[in-house]
TrEMBL record:
SUPFAM superfamilies (alphabetical): YjbR-like
Protein name as annotated: MmcQ/YjbR family DNA-binding protein
Keyword DNA-binding: yes
GO molecular function: DNA binding
Domain of life: Bacteria
InterPro entries per record: YjbR, YjbR-like_sf, YjbR/MT2646/Rv2570-like
Pfam family of the protein (one): YjbR
Amino acid sequence: MYTDDLRDYCLAKPAVTEGLPFGEDTLVFKVGEKIFLLTGIGSNTFNVKCDPELAVELREKHSEVLPGYHMNKKHWNTVQMDGGLTNKQLHEMIDHSYDLILKSLPKKLQQEIGANA
C-alpha cells in the first residue's frame, strides 16, 4: 500500500475529511472532526487509533506495528506499510481506528453518518 492507496481507502469511508492541520508534511484523516489516521506525505508509515489491548497484541505479533510515534502510545499505533503486512491487515487496522472514532461521536452524528453512508 502506498500513500495514494491509503488516501483513497480513507476517503472512501463515510463522512471522512482530509487536511494538513500540522503543516504541509502531515496528512490527517478525520471523521466528525476527530482524527482516526495520520501519515507523512510520501511516508511508508501511518498512525491509527487502537483499542489498548489490541494495540499491544498487534505490536507483539507484527514487527511492523510500533507504539504510536508522537501519540499516546496506549491508544495509538504506528504501522509500517512496506513490511510484511498485507493490504487486508492494513485495511483492518484502518477500519478499526475509524470505527473507534465513529463510536466516540455523539449518537446523533453517528446516525447522520450512517444514514448518509
